[in-house]
């Protein structure tokens, strides 16, 4: 990793002392909500697969377990965002990009999945905007390319 990607100890201390930006808290809440939705959906599919009459019990169980495992990514990202860990923004952004793909698929359906696709797309876009906001970036101690150790200019 380059020095631009690794926050200086002073930057870590500075980001931990002030209040957490509302945008960062909101992004963490949205990521946690998505993770919780995956856990609930996975548990529902798993229970239905074990107790109901699925066409393919093995696929239902596998799908349920897969959703529960996939829930770890947004849940860990949410925890990292709340703890102001710079690494957490990457998994949170990846979660939102995947959510946009799922929302697109839901919007292509001729069913009641369309409203779910709209809600998921809105949540993902809002979360992405919150995650790339400069206040969020500063709170996480993430510096862009071309910034010096203090984050205020080109390195010479």
How would you sum up this structure, described in words?
With 156 residues, the protein is mostly helical. Helix content is 70%, strand content 0%. The protein has seven helices and no strands. It has helices spanning 9-17, 22-51, 57-70, 72-82, 89-107, 113-132, 134-139. Helix 2 (22-51) packs antiparallel against helix 3. The model has no long low-confidence stretch (mean pLDDT 86).
Fold topology:
Layout: H1 9-17, H2 22-51, H3 57-70, H4 72-82, H5 89-107, H6 113-132, H7 134-139
Low-confidence stretches: none
User: Approximately how much helix is present in the residues?
Assistant: 55-70%
The number of helical runs is: 7
For the report, how would you describe the main beta sheet?
A: none
Approximately how much beta-strand content do the residues carry? under 5%
Structural class: mainly alpha
Can you count the beta strands?
0
Radius of gyration: 19 Å
Q: Helix and strand succession?
A: HHHHHHH
Mean pLDDT: 86
Give a quick rundown of the structure.
The protein has helices spanning 9-17, 22-51, 57-70, 72-82, 89-107, 113-132, 134-139. The protein is mainly alpha-helical and 156 residues long.
């Amino acid at each position: 990793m380059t020095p631009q990607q690794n926050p200086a100890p002073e930057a870590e201390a500075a980001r931990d002392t002030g209040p957490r930006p509302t945008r960062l808290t909101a992004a963490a809440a949205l990521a946690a909500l998505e993770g919780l939705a995956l856990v609930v959906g996975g548990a529902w599919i798993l229970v239905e697969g074990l107790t109901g009459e699925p066409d393919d019990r093995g696929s239902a169980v596998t799908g349920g377990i897969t959703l529960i495992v996939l829930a770890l990514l947004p849940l860990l990202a949410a925890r990292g965002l709340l703890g102001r860990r710079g690494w957490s923004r990457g998994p949170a952004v990846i979660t939102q990009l995947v959510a946009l793909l799922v929302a697109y698929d839901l919007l292509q359906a001729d069913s009641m999945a369309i409203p779910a696709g709209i809600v998921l797309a809105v949540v993902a876009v809002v979360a992405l905007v919150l995650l790339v906001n400069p206040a969020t970036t500063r709170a996480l101690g993430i510096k862009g390319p071309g910034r010096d150790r203090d984050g205020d200019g080109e390195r010479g």
